[in-house]
Design brief:
Layout: H1 2-10, H2 18-54, H3 56-61, H4 64-184, H5 187-193, H6 204-208, H7 210-221, H8 240-252, H9 260-274, H10 293-305, H11 307-317, H12 325-346, H13 353-380, E1 389-394, E2 401-411, E3 419-420, E4 423-426, E5 430-441, H14 447-450, E6 451-459, E7 462-466, E8 469-470, E9 481-483, H15 490-496, E10 500-503, H16 504-511, E11 516-519, E12 524-525, E13 528-529, H17 530-533, E14 536-546, E15 549-556, E16 563-565
Parallel strand pairs: 4-16
Antiparallel strand pairs: 1-2, 1-15, 2-5, 3-4, 5-10, 5-11, 6-7, 6-9, 6-14, 7-8, 12-13, 14-15, 14-16
Helix pairs in contact: 1-2, 2-4, 4-10, 4-11, 10-12
Length: about 575
């Protein structure tokens, strides 16, 4: 037992697993027993030989048969023990080899498990980072949406306040117009005061105020003391105190001789009376006197000035107030004055300089609209075959395959031309239509078994993919490096990989190739399309490798231009 424990300890056999340790223990016990038995037989053989050498005559005469048998048996036993010993050693070596293999397998499993754990951990961290990133995007989107809603609410409130101001101003203007109409009803007294009386003596104190009163009359009838300036929209109204002063002045002026200034005043009054329409029909009632010419003109000006506020009142209040008899009479006068003004302005003399300028302005506006509207319409329309064209061409001509003048047309999902600012715009989902191009294959190649595509994608001077490896986080490596047969059918590859000049017409005849290619929808993460995140101007460099050798390298689009992807 002690020898067995020492041997198992020496050879490193423990009790970690039953089968393995039992087999190792058995082989070790067999080797130990063979060694001990061989040592015993060697000891017996040595003792027998010593006795035979000590008594050679006795052994030779009496025990020759036993000696011969003894030597034969001993040799056979020794050979058997040697064979058993060799088998035990071989079994021990085999068990040790199996144990080493098992240890290596365990180490490999542990290493692979650790790598898988690290890979899963990195993937989980990456997914968590993506979730945080897109959560931030969603929060930012919500903030922007909230700001837009708040801005819209503020704009609506400001607009409501503005409309309220319009309504209040309209009501105030309406009240002012009615007050002015009531004040102007006293205009006949002023008209009567204008009749001169030669018997009245003018006091010296009132002669001093003659010029001031004349200015007041000018403002009353013409709105200004100078005839070159335009009259204000609302005429100056006399207060009660000033009206009494004017009335006293004209009562005192009856005894005064008519001088030059009084003649000028008469001329102004006659000029105003000439503006009175000839077809005006005046009706007198018991309650409302017929308005005079001055009253007509004054009320027309006041009414015209308050029309915009009246429109606001009618638009927002939606209430039509019935007119009184006095207001109806004034409305008739206003309509007559408007009709006469319209007749005077309807047939103007074209030889006048202001009217000629107006006509020239209208002519230029008409020409501008006639030319600008078609240009604007043409700039907003995407023309098929002109604005949605994309060209592909080889960068290097020393490679085994050369692509020449491959022309594509970009369409949206509804098969309508897709472009933005007169340039092709690729949308997902959408369509490509190949309308021309050639592929020159200089020698036979095999892209079906060993053809892989490597992309170099540049977005606005920043790399998204470089030589088949992803540089931008949202883009996986599978979009930058993939097999050629994943995007090009095998039957098309069989034609293009043979030497010769190949065209789209050849593919349509031989393989039934459909030149209209359908583009898949954009992948999305957490409901957000990657196309909306990665939209912009791109440059693609596509290289095809076969058995480690570059076969072709093309630029998409050709000519150092940029391709618009998902731009709106």
């Amino acid at each position: 037992m002690g020898g067995r424990s020492e041997t198992t300890k020496e050879h490193g056999h423990g009790l970690r697993n039953g089968v393995f340790d039992s087999e190792v223990g058995k082989s070790a016990d067999l080797v130990l027993a063979a060694k001990q038995l061989l040592a015993v037989f060697k000891h017996l053989d040595s003792e027998g030989r010593d006795r035979e050498s000590a008594h050679p005559i006795r052994y030779k005469n009496n025990n020759w048969l036993f000696g011969r048998f003894h030597s034969a048996v001993m040799s056979r036993l020794c050979n058997f023990l040697l064979i058993v010993l060799c088998l035990g050693v071989a079994a021990n070596l085999n068990v040790k080899k199996e144990r080493d293999t098992e240890v290596r397998h365990e180490n490999r499993v542990k290493r692979q498990t650790e790598e898988d754990r690290q890979r899963v951990q990195s993937r989980v961290e990456r997914d968590l980072w993506e979730i945080d990133y897109y959560n931030q995007l969603m929060q930012q989107h919500r903030k922007e949406k909230l700001q837009i809603e708040q801005t819209a609410i503020k704009y609506r409130e400001a607009r409501q306040q503005q409309l309220k101001g319009y309504v209040e101003a309209g009501r105030k203007a309406k009240a002012d117009a009615l007050a002015q109409a009531q004040v102007q009803a006293r205009a006949p007294a002023v008209q009567a005061a204008l009749v001169p009386s030669p018997t009245t003596q003018v006091p010296p104190t009132q002669i001093v105020t003659k010029k001031l009163t004349q200015d007041i009359l000018d403002q009353l009838f013409f709105g200004s003391t100078t005839t070159t300036q335009k009259p204000p929209p609302v005429p100056l109204l006399l207060s009660e105190k000033l009206f009494n002063k004017v009335h006293k002045f004209f009562k005192a002026k009856e005894a005064m001789k008519i001088d030059e200034e009084e003649e000028m005043t008469k001329k102004k009054i006659e000029a105003i009376r000439k503006l009175e329409p000839t077809t005006t029909t005046t009706t007198t009632t018991t309650t409302t006197p017929v308005p005079t010419t001055t009253e007509k003109e004054t009320f027309v000006v006041a009414k015209f000035d308050s029309e915009i506020y009246e429109r606001h009142l009618k638009h927002y209040d939606r209430v039509m107030v019935p007119l009184t008899a006095e207001e109806m009479a004034k409305v008739k006068v206003i309509q007559e004055v408007k009709s006469n003004l319209h007749k005077r302005l309807k047939f103007p003399r074209f030889s006048t300089i202001p009217q000629r300028e107006v006509m020239f302005r209208l002519f230029f506006v008409f020409v501008f609209l006639f030319l600008a509207i078609p240009l604007v319409l043409c700039s907003t329309v995407c023309r098929d075959g002109i604005d949605n064209v994309i060209k592909i061409g080889s960068i290097a001509n020393d490679l085994p395959v050369i692509a020449k003048n491959i022309t594509l047309l970009a369409y949206d999902y509804n098969m309508k031309p897709s472009c933005f600012e007169k340039r092709a715009n690729v949308v997902l989902p959408g369509y490509f239509k190949i309308i021309g191009g050639e592929v020159l294959t200089k020698k036979d190649i095999d892209v079906i078994k060993s053809g892989d595509v490597r992309l170099t994608v540049i977005k606005e001077d920043e790399y998204a993919c470089k030589d088949g490896e992803s540089v931008m986080f949202p883009i996986p490596n599978s979009l930058c490096h993939f097999e050629a047969t994943t995007i090009v059918p095998i039957d098309i590859c069989e034609v293009l990989q043979k030497s010769g000049l190949h065209t789209v017409r050849e593919l349509e005849i031989k393989k039934g190739f459909n030149s209209t290619l359908e583009l898949p929808p954009s992948p999305s993460v957490l409901g957000i399309s990657l196309l909306s995140l990665l939209s912009g101007n791109y440059q693609f460099v596509i290289s095809l490798h076969s058995q480690g050798e570059k076969m072709v390298e093309v630029a998409f689009p050709a000519g150092n231009t940029k391709l618009q992807l998902g731009v709106s």
